[in-house]
Design a protein that fits this description.
- The chain is an alpha/beta fold.
- The protein is built from nine helices and 14 strands.
- It has helices spanning 2-14, 28-38, 44-61, 79-87, 101-114, 156-170, 186-192, 199-214, 274-283, and strands at residues 18-19, 69-73, 93-98, 119-120, 123-124, 142-146, 175-181, 224-231, 236-243, 247-251, 254-258, 263-270, 287-294, 299-305.
- The two termini are 32 Å apart.
- The structure holds S-adenosyl-L-homocysteine and N,N-dimethyl-L-histidine.
- The site of N,N-dimethyl-L-histidine has 12 residues, from helix 8 and strand 12.
Length: 306
């Protein structure tokens, strides 16, 4: 993992403009900060999706066969999962996949306590890479679960690739239940990624905290300002870290100079339109079976069929 991180950091800082992959936000501290974000008044996606899920869970359950395996992508603290498990006790097995080892272990432990009849097989890994699911004798059909609009953290091409890979991983007869944040007014979007308490700023800087600690780099995360901007043409919120002063980052004998105001692009969070999403899913081998929509703030949960 360290080699992959080093390679990605050297590549990202060598680029113009500079960038870092958003998956590196999530170590133990990053996962903790993300959970704090979900409770912020400005961050509408979590509470909107949770309320919508609560409302439609009984309907969703009717689409889940007996003995099914629930495979979750980017499961984090597995909070929303509980709503699915409670509404669909016919689910026999749960495979949460996450890159954040500590978040995954804590979530699995808490779920084992509360769902003793469920077989839980956590998988630490990067879902953008080839994965193999743990096998289980006599396992039922697979239901993928990808909440939180995490799919929006990938561009259209990467997203299509992810959907295609998930189709192969989940197999024939599978379903994929995906949460997507929808386009809305700019003020609401920007506030959600630039909260007054500065939690999102700390989350953003955490990637540089990791670069400094895990790669023994010389870099001062506090020398960077957090920026969240709406890119209307690409329909995405972008997070950047802007150098406050002229500075130098040293990593493994390499030097990266930055001028005051220059930025490192750390995340994209695309906001969807239901028709565009349906087209992307179609290209990935899925068709929309049912879509449930919340009007304000706009958000959707979409059940895809293989
Ligand atoms: N599903 C939760 C958490 C969303 S945060 C919710 O809806 O609230 C995004 C989660 O995806 C984090 O737990 C992060 O660790 C994980 N993640 C991000 N990129 C990943 C990747 N490439 N592979 C696996 N997990 C990833
Ligand atoms: C995980 N992902 C969907 C979050 C988002 O909204 O794009 C990550 C996040 N970034 C800043 N705040 C939350």
């Amino acid at each position: 993992v360290k080699d992959g991180f080093l390679k990605d950091v050297l590549e990202g800082l060598s680029g113009s403009p500079k960038s870092l992959p958003s998956k590196y936000f999530y170590d133990a501290e990053g996962s903790r900060l993300f959970e704090a974000i979900t409770a912020l008044p400005e961050y509408y996606p979590t509470r909107t999706e949770t309320a919508l899920l609560q409302r439609i869970a009984p309907e969703l359950s009717a689409h889940i066969p007996d003995g099914a395996t629930l495979v979750e992508f980017g499961s984090g603290a597995s909070v929303k999962t509980r709503l699915v498990l409670d509404a669909a006790p016919q689910i026999a097995r749960y495979v949460p996949i996450d890159i954040s080892r500590t978040a995954l272990a804590e979530a699995a432990e808490a779920l084992r306590r509360d769902y003793p009849a469920l077989t839980i097989q956590p998988l630490v890994g990067d879902f953008t890479q080839a994965l193999q699911l743990p096998r289980s004798p006599g396992e039922g059909p697979r239901i993928g679960f990808f909440p939180g609009s995490t799919l929006g953290n990938f561009g259209p091409r990467q997203s299509e690739r992810l959907l295609t890979d998930a189709r192969a991983l989940l197999g024939d007869g599978s379903r994929f239940f995906v949460g997507i944040d929808l386009v809305k007014d700019e003020a609401t979007l920007v506030a959600a990624y630039d909260d007054a308490a500065g939690v999102t700023a700390a989350f953003n800087r955490n990637v540089l905290v990791r670069v400094r600690r895990e790669l023994a780099a010389e870099v001062d995360p506090d020398a960077f300002d957090h920026r969240a901007v709406w890119n209307a043409a690409e329909r995405r919120i972008e997070m950047h870290l802007a150098a406050r002063i002229d500075l130098v980052i040293h990593v493994e004998g390499r030097r990266f100079e930055m001028k005051a105001g220059e930025t490192i692009h750390t995340e994209n969070s695309r906001k969807f339109d239901l028709d565009d999403f349906a087209a992307e899913a179609g290209a990935g081998g899925w068709r929309v079976e049912t879509a449930w929509r919340e009007a304000d703030p706009a958000y959707a949960l979409v059940l895809l069929a293989a």
